[in-house]
Amino acid sequence: MTLKADMKLDAKGLACPMPIVKTKKAMNELIDGQVLEVQATDKGSKADLAAWSETVGHQYLGTTEDGDVLYHYIRKCSNDTMVEKTFEQTISNEEIVARAASGGCILDVREEAEYAFGHIKGSKSIPMGDLEARMNELDKNQEIYVICRTGKRSDLAAQKLANNGFTKVYNVLPGMTNWNGDLTKSI
Q: In the CATH hierarchy, which fold is given to the domain comprising 90-178?
């Protein structure tokens, strides 16, 4: 079944945060009510684009799959509905290990494969797409340091946690792309 879209965006072969960056630019070219089809191969784009849409006030309609290609459908809603915001509480890569050692939790929201090939020892893996269903695994009284590859998914995850009553949440910047410490593999 082919779904009608007012504009198509080819984001195949791109990794986070590029599908979001390109989607944001494409959405600026649409008028309210129009639908954007984003074609992506990054499996994490499913959770990323849904969370981004919710954050900025666009309507994430859903995703279909054809082989390795994900087809995301997003309906543009008025820009005055919501202004894109970033999570205010941030912490640097260098600070999280010491802070986590004193009782905090490093929450890695990258996809399982990203986590398996290299993560911070002792970090907890909950991919962004699973966060809503697995929040009960986290302690609201504990400091939580949310990390991803670049800081974009972790920003969205930190906002989601804060919106669900977590008050001690920090977005780790710039994320795993600039991580200089030891990595643990789980493969």
A: Oxidized Rhodanese; domain 1 (3.40.250)
Q: What is the DSSP string of 60-116?
A: EEEEEEETTEEEEEEE---TTT------S-EEEHHHHHHHHHTT-EEEE-S-HHHHH
- For the domain spanning 7-75, the CATH number is 3.30.110.40
Catalytic member of 16, 77, 105, 148: 16
Note down pLDDT in tens along the chain; length 187 residues: 567 899 999 999 999 899 999 999 999 999 988 899 999 999 999 999 999 998 888 989 889 999 999 999 998 987 544 456 789 999 999 999 888 888 899 999 988 878 988 999 999 999 988 999 999 999 999 999 999 988 989 999 999 999 999 999 999 999 998 999 999 988 7
Residue indicated by tokens 């949310």: 146
* 105 part of the active site: no
State the span(s) of the chain assigned CATH 3.40.250.10.
90-178
Intervals of CATH 3.30.110.40 along the chain: 7-75
Instruction: Give the predicted TM-score (pTM) of the model.
Output: 0.69
